[in-house]
Structures are given as C-alpha cells and as structure tokens.
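User: Run a structure prediction on this.
Assistant: Running it now.
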Amino acid sequence: MKYGESTFDVLYLVFAILTGIVILIKHRNKNDVLMGTAALVLGLGDSFHLVPRVLNYFIDKDFTWYLGFGKLVTSITMTIFYILVFLLYKCVYNKDDKNTKNVGITICILAAMRIALCLAPGNNWFTGEGSMLWGVIRNLPFIVIGGIVVYLYFKVRKEDKYLGRLWLYTTLSFLFYIPVAIFAPLLPILGMLMLPKTVCYILMLISFIRKEQKDG
C-alpha cells in the first residue's frame, strides 16, 4: 500500500506543479495566468502535506508536527485555489455584473473566515489530536465556497466544453473530502477517500491544460 500510495502522491505533485509552470510559461491571456497559478497553488500547497506523508512511510521518525503543519497549509491553499477558480469563471465567461461582484465579495469573506478558523488553536494541528467539532466549524465556510463555485460553473456548463465539467469535478472532490475532514479523527480509514479526491483535482488540471491548448 505504501508504495502504491506514495507513487501516486509523487506523480500527482509533479503533474500539478509542472502543469502550473508550463501554463504560466506559455500564457497568452489572463485565463492562462489564473489556471497556471491555480495549478501551482494546488500542487505546492498539497506538497506540504503529501511529502511528509510519503516520508513517514519510509523514515523512522515522528512526523506528527510536519503532517499537522502540512494539513494547515493545505487547508489554506485549497481555499485560495477555489478563489482562483471563481476568478477564472469571471474571466472566461466575462462576468463583471453587480451580482457576480457581490458573489466575489461573499467568497472573499467566507475565505477569510475559513483561514481564520484554520489558524485557531482548537484545531490541534501539531499534536495529531484532531477535533470533529473543529473539523465541522472550519469546513463550513469552505463547503459554502465550493457550493457557490459548483453552482456558477453548472450554469455555464454548456458554454465551454473544456471547462464544462468543472462543476462535476468540484462536486465530487467535496463529496470525497467532507467525510475525511470531519470523521477521519474517529475513522482514520476514511483517509483513503483523499485518493479519489485527488483524482478529481487531476481532472480539473487536465481541463486547464485543454483550455490553454484551445486558446493557443
């Protein structure tokens, strides 16, 4: 198991980071900048958690602090990732009306709440003693952000075949993520759901690649 999961994690990180770098190098417009930045934020942010996780399999050392710090960083970078995905929606579909601006303000407020809650001491990131209560509290604004992104992309799903399934990949990623974020302290086996969640991210990155190639 450790070899299979470790290989998957490393390949995912390399793919995400290289995707971001390549799109940014080749960028031709603001859409590409947003997609490339989103891919980099995703890959670099997840590396803080996945690298210690991989090392934990092969090195006889207590990685509790590093894994906790990685989860904290990833919680924040995932939030930033979905802000960028929202900005991509605005840019690709030329949404600059008052309603969309209000939605953007709402997402920023929710993101600030999410980050502040992630930084709260009650999360016990560095001790490995996860709290179900704090798992619920810190993820409520994040789930709302995800719901908003899903709704926006669902409305325009037929307007762009390259990004048309982002609503589906986002929905599935949250369905896999929520049980882990809330119940993993009680049932660690739920952590396996992070693998299909990561597959959803890979599919989102492939959508970015296809969109960049189409625009090129």
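The mean pLDDT is 92.
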